[in-house]
Amino acid sequence: MPKVTIDGHTIEVPEGTTILNAARMIGGEIVPPAMCYYSKLKTSGGYCRTCIVEVSKGSEKDPRPMPKPVASCRTTVMDGMEVKNLTSPALLEARAGVVEFLLINHPLDCPICDQAGECHLQDLGYEHGKAKTRYEFPRRTFEKIDIGNYIKLHMTRCILCYRCVKVAEQLTDGRVHGVINRGEVSEISTYIQNAIKNDFSGNMIDVCPVGALTDKTFRFKSRVWFTKPVDAHRDCKKCSGKVRLWEKGEEVLRVTARKDTYGEVVDWICNDCRFEKKKIGDWIIEGPAKIDRHSVISANHYESLNQLKLAVARQRNKGGKKPALGEGALNPNNI
Amino acid sequence: MGKKLLLEHDHVPGINSYSVYREKGGYASVEKALKTMTPESLVEEVKKSGLRGRGGAGFPTGLKWSFLAKPPGVERYLVCNADESEPGTFKDRYLMERIPHLLVEGMITSSFALGAKSSYIYIRGEYFYVAKILEKAIEEAYANGWLGKNILGTDFSHDCYVQIGAGAYICGEETALLESLEGKRGNPRIKPPFPAVAGLWGCPTVVNNVETIAAVVPIVNQGGEAYAQIGIGKSTGTKLISASGHINKPGVYELELGLPVEEFIYSEAYCGGIRGGRKLKAVVAGGSSVPILPAELILKTAKGEPRLMSYESLGDGGFITGTMLGSGGFIVMDDTTSIVKNLYTFSRFYHHESCGQCSPCREGTGWMEKILHKILDGHGTLADVDLLWDIQSKIEGKTICPLGEAAAWPVAAAIRHFRSEFEDYVKNPGNIQDVKHYYRLNNLQPA
Ligand SMILES: Cc1cc2nc3c(=O)[nH]c(=O)nc-3n(C[C@H](O)[C@H](O)[C@H](O)COP(=O)(O)O)c2cc1C
Ligand code: SF4
Ligand code: FES
């Protein structure tokens, strides 16, 4: 089995493993961010370029470094390969460049976006981006469109990760969903604004890293961080029936698939479970969901929110001014 | 005039027809290959010839052919890249239009070497009339037994098809070309796998430029070693150059590799000097994506040696003081040219042609165009010039296909060699409000 060293951590992995997956096996901070790769979708990855890493040694056989950074999600490990991610300042600068490219035409409308709080682009911008944009031109915009009864497409926010296209290709039949036009004006679209009618189409919402595809049954109901994630299941003939409910009080505001550390769906769920079963009685509750992905909704979010509230209270008592949002443990983008 | 291998009979009336082409020795390479050679020995000849890809990258053709996977029972394909969309490049069109049978002959001979039962000529949509010329030539080749079943009574059978693209620069990138040829959106594929292993319809495929395939004909006729005698060093053979810009005699020239650049620009046999006897300012030597060089660096290398038309000599000095032979799109600019405007035109092109799959190219190309527009409009700042530099450095090497580099290199080179001109635009916005600004700025008379 080939051995690879990433930022000083060595691991042996099965033949054919990508650098990204090897990094995920090591785990922790050294895992490159991935905005388009999705382990459950074949041929995904390679587009966004956020997962780039530096290969400082190609392999035992051919130790030459690779001349350019490579997409870790699409590059397989060779025996003796050495990879630099966080340990290469040049690479981090290159990645910051990619993040900037992804953001220059993004509307940054987080305050009115349903995805805020669980948006991978927010996390990416916060962790790998720069504080200020250098882009001064009008940003590109598109009209919002409905693709069927359940899904809203807000192309302006899209980063063209192609994940939803792969869902349409691989999970649904009679695909009518893809990319039209070219370059900067490419857009995700359905054939002549066709409705997507398919039992599994809702999974597009879950794979979308940003707020471009949102659940029409949940739109504007609540900020995600005011809802409580609970794992639940039901007997479903179409899918595993294993879901995550997002509750507020006694109400189920939204149903999604369960996601892993990297924000990827564990089991695809059907549209019945996702859109039609919004009563607590429809479900057998397993307990609070453990969200170990770093984001505002992860467990310690409530903790940090409380700390912020306490800090505000303390300042008020002293007659001082409110602390700036960024001073708490919170990512200001997430608010 | 130097040696001509491809355009030798260019001036012969009726050379576009089968009968005249045949009279001039056409299809001899097919006869020789099928009757006296094996596919392996043919690949060997091409290796010996030192022929390098004429599509831009200059990869050794024989080596590329030897990489072709040959799993039993799986079809193999030869695809000819006739997408020719790099600004400044028009030699493939010239060749196909004037001597279409040379390409058809090259397709048959090369396919024999590769063991391909079918081959495709993928031609850009704007060349629809050239496609008709090729189709007629193919028809004539069928009628005379050079295509179809059991060619010349051997067990080699071959079919050749022409496929018209919809006119997209990106479909010249070999994997985007294959996608388009398969009837899909012309997006470059993520490599590996390379076409030599999984190309057209997942089968092993060789993609070669029109000129590369045409050059196989003289290589087979004369033998690889004889071909390797022509040219200089590792730049063997002849090369078609599309010469354009401010020269007295723009056009397509076949030259022996190794010709001094100065001779190419100034001699009567080639470009015939700069129009109106003006001063040479800069040259883009190999199509819009290769680095622009100022007059002093295109005529002589940084070491002071005369610059030659060859892969090595044009590349001498790397990108700091050198450039590339590329596709041979030789764009000459005299002293009335605005480098900033020229760069804007190039950048607008790459922005328009980006397929949009990967973030740095999709977003960065548009951003660079906008900044250049701002500078041209008289609103630029010195910080914008630095920003441009930074953006191109963040596109280069971070993309799926080399279009990212093609967009980044011209920006880098223009700033590297002509920074003061960008600064002029920024510092004297009052001068650039009308099209004649540049002449005034340099005390020149419009041409
Ligand atoms: C954006 C882009 C456009 C290209 N356009 C062309 C083209 O129009 N014609 C061509 O022969 N090669 C073009 N190429 C190069 C091809 O990908 C490929 O390298 C070439 O066809 C190989 O043929 P050769 O080895 O005979 O040069 C292009 C490459 C890129 C990245
Ligand atoms: S570099 Fe540009 S053209 Fe090439 S794949 Fe990326 S977006 Fe498409
Ligand atoms: S995650 Fe690898 S390129 Fe997008």
Features:
heterodimer; A: 335 residues; alpha+beta; Ubiquitin-like (UB roll); Alpha-Beta Plaits; 4 domains; 5-stranded mixed β-sheet; 4-stranded antiparallel β-sheet; 7 helices; disordered C terminus; B: 447 residues; alpha/beta; Rossmann fold; de novo design (two linked rop proteins); 3 domains; 4-stranded parallel β-sheet; 11 strands; 44% helix; globular; binds flavin mononucleotide; binds iron/sulfur cluster; binds FE2/S2 (inorganic) cluster
Briefly summarize what is shown.
The complex is a heterodimer of chains A (335) and B (447). Chain A is of the alpha+beta class and 335 residues long.
Would you write up a description of this structure?
The complex is a heterodimer of chains A (335) and B (447). With 335 residues, chain A is α+β, with helices and mostly antiparallel strands. Chain A has four domains: 3-102, Ubiquitin-like (UB roll) (Roll), CATH 3.10.20; 110-215, Alpha-Beta Plaits, CATH 3.30.70; 224-296; 302-334, no CATH class. Chain A is 21% helix and 19% strand. Chain A has seven helices and 14 strands. Chain A has helices at 19-26, 89-104, 120-128, 163-171, 203-207, 271-276, 300-318, and strands at 3-6, 9-12, 52-57, 70-71, 81-84, 145-147, 151-153, 177-180, 187-190, 213-215, 228-233, 242-248, 251-257, 284-288. A five-stranded mixed sheet of chain A has the order 2-1-5-3-4, sandwiched between helices. Chain A has a four-stranded antiparallel sheet with strand order 13-12-11-14. Chain A has a three-stranded antiparallel sheet with strand order 6-7-10. In chain A, a hairpin with a 2-residue loop joins strand 12 (242-248) and strand 13. In chain A, helix 2 crosses helix 3. Chain A is globular and about 60 Å long. Chain A starts with a strand and ends in a 17-residue tail after the last helix. Chain B has 447 residues and is of the alpha/beta class. Chain B has three domains: 18-228, 3-Layer(aba) Sandwich (Rossmann fold), CATH 3.40.50.11540; 232-334, Ubiquitin-like (UB roll) (Roll), CATH 3.10.20; 339-441, de novo design (two linked rop proteins). In chain B, 44% of the residues lie in helices and 12% in strands. Chain B is built from 19 helices and eleven strands. Chain B has helices at 18-23, 28-36, 39-49, 61-66, 91-98, 100-114, 128-143, 174-181, 210-222, 224-229, 261-266, 295-299, 311-315, 318-321, 339-353, 359-376, 382-395, 403-427, 437-441; strands at 77-82, 118-123, 159-164, 205-209, 231-232, 235-236, 238-245, 251-256, 280-284, 292-294, 329-334. In chain B, the strands form three sheets. Chain B has a five-stranded mixed sheet. A four-stranded parallel sheet of chain B has the order 3-2-1-4, with helices on both faces. In chain B, helix 16 packs antiparallel against helix 17 (382-395) and helix 17 runs antiparallel to helix 18. The longest helix of chain B is centred in the last third of the chain and has 25 residues, at 403-427. The two termini of chain B are 30 Å apart. The A-B interface holds A 45-50, 52, 67-69, 71, 74, 94, 97-98, 100-102, 104-105, 134-135, 137, 159-160, 162, 178-179, 181-186 and B 168, 170, 185, 190, 351-360, 362-367, 370, 387, 390, 393-394, 397-400. FE2/S2 (inorganic) cluster is lined by residues 34-37, 45-51, 71, 73 of chain A.
